[in-house]
Write a structure and sequence with these properties.
elongated
Amino acid sequence: MALATIATQVASGALPRRRRRRAPATTTHFTPLLPTPPPPPATLDRVLSDLESYPHLLTPPLLRPLLAALPLHPSPRRRLAALRGLLPESLLRRNPDLALRLLHLHASLGLLAYAHHIFDHLLPARTRRDRAFPWNCLVAGYAHLGRHEDALALYLQMDEEGAPRDGFTFASALRACAGVRSAALGRAVHRDALRAGFASGDVVTVCDALVDMYAQCGDLEMARRVFDAMPGVRDTVSWNIMLARCLRHGLSTHAIEFWRRMLKEGHMPDSFSLSMLLSLLSDDNGGKQGLAVHAWVIRDDLEQDLSVANALIEMYSGKNELGHALWVFESMTVKDLVSWNTIISAHRQDFGILTMFRRMVDSGAQPDETTFAVVLSACENLGLVEDGTRLFSEMESKYIIQPTLEHYASVVNMLGKAGMVNEAYEFMSKRTHLSSEPRIFMALLHASSVHGNIRIGEIAAKKLFDLEPDNVHNFATLRKMYKNTGRLEEVEKVERMMRDKMSN
């Protein structure tokens, strides 16, 4: 089905009226790709210093390489501010090409307030009217900052002022539509692109943006129809978009289908596609498909790609195939924090987890919150109380990591499962900020019920009744504790409380 025929099925309706533009609240940095190799920072600083002393040297032939070099240096915005202070606006008005370069640089660095100043006050009206480039810089800049409504307002203003729109314009506007999750706005931009001839199958960037927009807005059927209508120009990015969106929506069957079509049509999967698909196959339902994807990894010599190798470890870990996970890990020539955390997680049911943790530390890798969450959880499940409490202490004192509720809960559960209910209560009591966390008191109540610690169980239950008065499970656990210890009168009291609670 050709893309042009889809236009007749896109619902009619106009985009809303544009909103007034406002200066950006934040200045997020993103660096454009520029081919010019930068001079050393000290050289650039020296040039700027000389220009400050001799401003008459600031001419267009010098400005062009300076503007090309700025974004490739550390602290580009600081150096740009220094250069901006030297620039006479009259020079930019006489040289629209330099004004455009400066506008693009500010927009790409997230400095949209001054980019707007250039656009509104320094560019000739003819440039704004006849060229899409200055508009595109602002639309893309706003979309990149997450200011999607402002990006769409500028897109609308382009139409009102008769400015030309190109493929980059439509792709940026579609990303903004995806950002606000509005399929209605996306369909309006889709119609505009079709009328302008930029949504035909040969304009792959616009078609990719259409697929992504519809998928992010939840209209996967339309996303697939646009995708299927791209006649022979689907590239790796196109396939990645469909794979990623299917995975995001939990459509594993569709993702596998697109994967098979990708291979059948002769498209070689890249590391992104492989990583995404491996994450889908990280449970037992993956069957032999995970092995097939691993074969593609070996065939394409992607075994040393970090994201792919990490995804392979995660996949085999999810299948409880520790041997395969270790084989992938040991064959990696470079390992990052994700690699270590993933292989440690693969040992979460194995006593070798502490050895793997020590290997990580000895390698020079620095454990983080995730590392300790996995290791403490494993110590809880494996009954390694002494090791677990020692590691918790190291996390705070040696690695200066602030524990989260997950870490605290693991220690309380660890002590409680080992029958050290009093110690678990003491651990919690020393940390007053835990006194309002139901998860901690539920762990205490459960451990008290299992090990018959009436005193701590009653304390935990009383606190839980205050924190979660409608949670019947807490009453049931308290009743079970009384019943297991032969305190039948208390059992009756709790049952009456439960009946009263259910009747209200």
